[in-house]
Fold:
Amino acid sequence: SQQGEEDPQALSIQEGENATMNCSYKTSINNLQWYRQNSGRGLVHLILIRSNEREKHSGRLRVTLDTSKKSSSLLITASRAADTASYFCATDATENTDKLIFGTGTRLQVFP
Amino acid sequence: GAVVSQHPSWVICKSGTSVKIECRSLDFQATTMFWYRQFPKQSLMLMATSNEGSKATYEQGVEKDKFLINHASLTLSTLTVTSAHPEDSSFYICSASKLLRDSPLHFGNGTRLTVT
Structure:
C-alpha cells in the first residue's frame, strides 16, 4: 500500500498546549498537504508544502518537510477546543499529480 | 473559495437496491473528480478517479460494475452503488481539483450510506 502512516493515532491535550502530528510516506512527491476533518464531514485543506520547501507557516500552523526521511510534521500552537478534529496528511505521486494518497490520520482532542 | 456540494448527506436503503450519490463543483469546472470511501475512524481510501467525458479510472480492488461512476459534465460526477449490501455501508466522499499547480482538493461533505 502506498498509504502514509501518521502518529500518534490519537492525541489528547488541554487548551493552550501545542499539538504535534507526524506523517511518513513512501514515494517521491511533488508536494505534501495537510487536511482537517470534523467528525462526519468532508475534509478541509489546511496547508501545502512543496517538495523543495522545508518549513511553512500559516497562522497557528507550522509544517515541516524532510524529503530525505520522507516525513512531515504538523504543529498546532496554542490549541483551542475548536481544533478538535482528525488531521490527515496527503501526498501526490510525482508520476500522477492528480491523485492524492492520504495518511492514516491523527485524531486530536483538545479539552477546554 | 471553491465549493463542492455532495448529495445526499445520508441515505438508508435496503439490500439489493441501488443508490446514487451526486458531487457538484459549484463555482469552478472540474475535469477530474475523485471518490473516496472512509470507514469509521479510518483514513480515506481512493476508489476511483472520475474523468469528464471518459471512463473512470478505478483503484485496484474496486469493482467498477459495483460502483458506477459517471462524469457527464464539468461540474457533476455521480457514484451509483449498485445492488447494495450491508458491507457497502460506509462514508463516501467526493473531491474535485482545479488542476492548477499545487491546487488543493476541495471536498464535499460526504454521504453516509447505511444498507439494511
